[in-house]
Specification:
The complex is a heterodimer of chains A (256) and B (274). With 256 residues, chain A is mainly alpha-helical. Chain A is flat and about 65 Å long. Chain A is built from nine helices and no strands. Chain A folds into two domains: 147 residues, no CATH class; 74 residues, no CATH class. Chain B is built from eleven helices and ten strands. In chain B, strand 4 and strand 5 form a beta hairpin.
Chain lengths: 256, 274
């Protein structure tokens, strides 16, 4: 699952990290939207080559590369199956662009998740007028994903020590083997949720309606610049894509 | 016999959890592993049943390198009970939970039932057979988890912090059960911070600190060593403290004194015999 690493916040000091989460959200969505608008190889490659320097600006190229390596198997799968099975004219070109699109989409969203600290995310949501309870629940959920992973490994160890063979047998046996893992995982999570709720209440969670925040997010000039240029690019791309049409050289395909 | 030979292990390649552990566990032995949190105790016993594999060094079970054995194979010989019972309970009755392990190992239905009843009785869980483990208290769940492994009576049994959440009476029951199994020739290894539990029940103690074994020998020798107590973040045993206080007045009181019976003997000796 190493390809998911690209969605995990990494502590860094970079231009991208210092941007306001809200402007990064706009940037990410615009990048993703632009990559969704094309099915041709050249424009997708162009989007991709625009995204790479942004990852580099976040000082996260090596992490990104590692994740993409983890994604390799899935990409090969996409390529092979679509080439063999899709009914379009140039199946290889089609699946090739699908693969680039997948990478571009992941990279777009990773820009956001790599550089936004969970606390900042909930603060951004709050300042976008999401209710505090919801924003808090969301950041708690993100916070507990790695914990849940560790717990799953501990449970697997405990069951293997009891003689459960997780990686043996036919498919039905393997599916049945998930039960001794998933049931304790759910129970442990519910128990933890209850005890977190209790400990939060005993520390006065929800005691006062109006909250104040130690750190408020501020939109700076550079954030406005990012948002405005993102929107400008989006409008331009929409205009070219839907009203002008792509120039011929951009429609280039593999001949198969 | 389990032999650990110069075992090294690191979880993330940065922090080394075990740095050169060598240990011999003889058949029919009974010993305790003590050490501060993070000393590598759990990591070490996970090597005994193959859940973790040494990155350097070897683990040898009955003359065979465990490198070539699966965890399930080793689990028939080496049972391991973890700290958190919630990590292994998943069935809807205590009865099924205990029989699950027995079935995995291949006991017949009647044998499994017999063993289950016996184990539940000796852990004070007779009335719980039909209850759902999830409705039990923390201490009771702990005993169900213990029962599910103890019932299989593996030749080697390693328990990680078995006394957490247990009252004195339940601890005694557990100790008694372990002693009985030990008498039948099973090897019992316990990882614990409970120093009185160690003194009363285990003749041998292995002390760990920073991923290394810093002392290995008779319990009274290891636990009366101040450096060991200090590095394992323990408080000295009550009897050792009492003996030290006595020694201020009576210099003939021994250095290595951890048991109540030893203290009694000494006092009787001082009083001129009775």
């Amino acid at each position: 699952m190493s390809f998911l690493e690209v969605f995990q916040y990494t502590r860094q000091d970079s231009v991208m990290h210092r941007l306001d989460p809200r402007s990064k959200l706009v940037l990410s969505i615009v990048c993703a939207a632009v990559s969704m608008m094309f099915m041709e190889i050249i424009p997708l490659l162009m989007v991709f080559t625009c995204l790479l320097p942004m990852i580099a600006a976040a000082k996260s190229l090596s992490r990104w590369a590692k994740s993409m390596k983890g994604l390799g198997a899935l990409l090969v799968f996409v390529l092979v199956f679509n080439t063999l099975l899709s009914p379009v004219e140039n199946p290889f070109s089609y699946s090739f662009s699908l693969a680039i699109r997948l990478v571009a989409l992941m990279t777009s969203f990773s820009l956001f998740f790599l550089t936004v600290q969970p606390d900042q995310l909930s603060q951004a949501l709050i300042q976008m007028r999401v209710k505090f309870e919801f924003a808090f629940a969301m950041s708690m959920a993100m916070r507990y994903v790695p914990t849940l992973g560790q717990e799953a490994y501990a449970i697997m160890d405990a069951q293997r020590a009891r003689g459960v063979e997780l990686d043996k047998g036919n498919i039905i046996k393997r599916i049945r083997n998930i039960i001794p893992i998933i049931v304790p995982l759910i129970i442990v999570s519910i128990r933890r949720a209850l005890s977190i709720a209790e400990s939060m209440e005993s520390r006065g969670f929800g005691a006062s309606d109006s909250r104040t925040y130690m750190e408020m997010l501020r939109f700076r000039k550079r954030d406005w610049a990012v948002v405005l240029s993102s929107l400008l690019i989006l409008i331009l791309v929409i205009y070219v894509r839907f009203f002008v049409g792509l120039p011929g050289w951009m429609l280039w395909n593999f001949p198969f | 016999m389990i032999i650990l030979e110069d075992v090294h292990y690191s979880y993330d390649g940065v922090y080394t959890a075990l740095r050169g552990i060598s240990l011999q566990v003889d058949d029919g032995e009974r010993f305790a592993v003590i050490g501060a949190n993070g000393a590598g105790k759990t990591t070490m016993i996970k090597h005994m049943n193959g859940l973790l594999r040494p990155q350097k060094g070897r683990v040898i079970l009955d003359g065979q390198d465990t490198k070539f054995m699966s965890v399930a194979e080793i689990a028939r010989e080496v049972g391991l009970v973890f700290q958190n019972p919630d990590h292994q309970l998943f069935l809807d009755s205590v009865k099924k939970e205990v029989e699950f392990g027995l079935r995995n190992i291949g006991f017949t239905e009647s044998e499994a039932e017999q063993r289950r009843q016996k184990t539940l009785a000796s852990l004070g869980l007779e009335g719980f057979a039909e209850r759902s483990p999830f409705t039990l208290s923390g201490g009771e769940r702990k005993r169900v988890a213990l029962a599910s492994v103890l019932s299989t009576e593996p030749r080697f049994l390693a328990l990680d912090e078995p006394t957490i959440g247990q009252d004195a009476h339940q601890k005694n029951q557990l100790a008694q059960m372990l002693a009985e199994m030990n008498k039948r020739g099973r090897t019992v290894v316990v990882v614990t911070h409970d120093i009185e539990f160690v003194i009363e029940n285990f003749p041998r103690t292995v002390a760990m600190a920073d991923g290394q074994i810093i002392a290995d020998g008779s319990t009274s020798m290891v636990l009366s060593n101040d450096e060991v107590i200090e590095r394992c973040a323990l408080a000295p045993p009550q009897m050792t403290l009492a003996a030290r206080a006595l020694r201020n007045v009576f210099p003939e009181v021994g250095q290595r004194l951890t048991l109540l019976s030893e203290l009694e003997e000494t006092i009787i000796g001082i009083l001129g015999g009775a």
